[in-house]
Automatic annotation (TrEMBL):
Gene3D superfamilies: 3.40.630.30. It comes from the Bacteria. Residues 3-173 form the N-acetyltransferase domain. CDD domains: NAT_SF. This is N-acetyltransferase domain-containing protein. It comes from Deinococcus knuensis. Keywords: Acyltransferase, Transferase.
């Protein structure tokens, strides 16, 4: 399988809506946003998230020549000058039928490469719930390391989740 990763644009908003909503429905424990909150966003708001001047950059993954969007990863650089060396990774997902085909690894690699290309960026940061061990392994294979754990971080549907915070030093060889 060939995985293609590219930056999404406002023209991708319908595919982004479908992929993100499917991810929120398939793995609700992995995200802070729930499917109903996301579904309430209008097309204009979604297109704005994918605009060239948006606060974040959302990457999309595609398998072979299939037009369906099968993976997402968003990078957001901190805007406050003392934190501008940091980029946060959000909303990573791979559609269940596309898992195990290198989509997640391709997205993370593309995100790391993009963040490395931004002047002054020295580290990537993300959080992963304890209910997502496969995601944590993906990030650790890419070089991310856990630097902290927050018990009782999220409560949803009667469950309590622990959140692991990971970072990747982009200055290391």
């Amino acid at each position: 399988m060939t995985v293609t990763v590219r930056r999404l644009t406002p023209a991708d908003a319908p595919a982004y809506r479908a992929a993100r909503l499917a991810a929120l429905q398939a793995d609700p424990a992995a995200f802070l946003t729930n499917a109903a909150e996301f579904a309430a966003l209008d097309d204009t708001a979604l297109a704005a998230r994918l605009a060239p001047d948006a606060a974040g950059v959302t990457l999309g993954a595609f398998l072979n020549t299939d037009p369906d969007l099968v993976g997402l990863l968003t990078l957001v650089r901190e805007s406050a000058p003392p934190l501008a060396h940091r980029v946060n990774v959000y909303g990573v997902s791979v559609a269940p039928p596309a898992r195990g085909q290198g989509v997640g690894a391709a997205l993370v690699q593309a995100g790391v490469e993009l963040a490395r290309s931004w002047a002054g960026v020295t580290s990537l940061h993300l959080a992963v719930m304890d209910a997502q061990p496969a995601a944590r392994r993906l990030y650790e294979r890419a070089g991310f390391r856990v630097w902290g754990t927050q018990p009782d971080a999220v409560r949803r549907d009667g469950r309590v989740y622990t959140e692991h915070w990971l970072s990747l030093d982009l200055t290391a060889p």
